[in-house]
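On clarity, I found the account of how folds are encoded harder to follow than it need be. Since the whole study asks how a given chain folds, the encoding of that fold should be made plain. For illustration, here is how one protein appears when written out as sequence plus structure tokens:

:::
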Amino acid sequence: MGIGYAALAIKAGLNSFQTILMSFFVYAGAGQIMAVSMLAQGATMLAIVLTSFVVNLRYFVMNACVYNKVEESSLPLNILSAHLAVDESFAMFSLMEESSIWTYMGLAGIAFSSWVFGALIGVLVLNILPVIVTNSFNISLYALFVALLVPAIKNSKELAILVVITAILNVILQFFIGNWSLIVATLLGTVIGMYIVDDETILGDSFSENDGGNLLDKRSCDNDKEVQL
């Protein structure tokens, strides 16, 4: 995916240095791919920032779950680990019995290095790859979102309906508010989801067993990981 991001970033007008620096300082995965795609379409910087914020809001929950699980940490480590947060390292740490912040930092650091290295490879090899191959990276954003969505909706009809409703809203709103459609559609989809998707669907058995209590305990975080993946 890092190579796919690099292809889209170069196509959007970023130079090689800017492409790699964005991976290093932003490190948002789907958020980066979406940002450079919006940049290529002429979106405003404010629209890109707000859309990225909405898409990456899940990291707030992920980091809260990690800090709830670890036994000892510090503010500097929390800040650094928050920057390194990503779906894959969160999922692996949630499944482990280990509760050390250093274990999580190790997992997250490997994922971070892989992403940045992928972007570096991308900017180096794009000029020698056939055009048909570089053009194929245009579907990277769609492939990434499909990978995130399918496991979450395959066992929930309500979530599947919510995804379809949000997608339809996005398409319709594009004719009226352009690049702001994704932000508004996502927010409207969130509001609709509050009414058609119950908490037990999202949180699994832990919600019933805890009677809707502390949603950031370790078992709830484990279930959140399953939804994100």
The radius of gyration is 19 Å. Residues 205-216, 223-229 have pLDDT under 50 and may be disordered.
